[in-house]
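Private note to self, pasted from the team thread so I don't lose it. Backbone tokens:
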């Protein structure tokens, strides 16, 4: 190897100054070409690729922002249903309170409860109501001193099946009611049902 370098050195020394300068410039150009091929060009290509990807991401992000801004504010379609449900729940709580009062023997709440159950039957209509005079409890309750019955007479008209459902709903919701005479008139349409219901009260 040393002999080879000596030979090359001898050849270079034998060249003229102009030839030496040409060789030197050629070597520098070769080194630059190798550096460009091995490092500069790949680095620039990678940089351009990253720049393109970054630009594409920015464009996509801007498009999504534009779509988001143009999207109308979502409307809560369930809001009316929730409002109606809350009102029904409140109404149900009031009915249950009235039912509990009537079942416990508080006659002033009996008539509104009967009317409320009737209102929940759209096919029925109220003909008349009447408060029955308080009297001593009859039957098995007669042995209890100081117990009186307070009642309401109700006349309701409507289809027979709806009348049956109305009476059934009262029996299920107010098991402590005492029932009086019940009369169904069907000479005219729709049929008319007259019923009497009582609650027991203990006199002080």
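Design output:
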């Amino acid at each position: 190897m040393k002999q080879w370098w000596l030979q090359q050195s001898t050849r270079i020394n034998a060249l003229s100054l102009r030839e030496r300068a040409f060789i030197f410039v050629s070597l520098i150009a070769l080194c630059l070409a190798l550096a460009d091929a091995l490092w500069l060009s790949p680095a620039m290509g990678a940089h351009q690729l990253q720049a393109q990807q970054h630009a594409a991401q920015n464009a996509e992000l801007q498009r999504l922002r534009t779509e988001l801004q143009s999207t109308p504010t979502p409307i809560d379609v369930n809001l009316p249903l929730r409002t109606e449900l809350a009102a029904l729940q409140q109404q149900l709580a009031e009915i249950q309170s009235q039912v509990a009062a009537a079942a416990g023997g508080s006659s002033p709440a009996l008539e509104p409860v009967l009317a409320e159950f009737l209102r929940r039957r759209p096919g029925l209509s109220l003909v008349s109501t009447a408060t029955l005079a308080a009297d001593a409890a009859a039957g098995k309750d007669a042995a209890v001193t100081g117990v009186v019955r307070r009642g309401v007479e109700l006349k309701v008209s409507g289809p027979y099946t709806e009348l049956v459902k109305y009476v059934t709903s009262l029996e299920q919701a107010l098991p402590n009611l005492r029932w009086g005479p019940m009369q169904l008139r069907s000479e005219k349409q729709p049929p008319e049902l007259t019923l009497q219901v009582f609650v027991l009260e203990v006199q002080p």
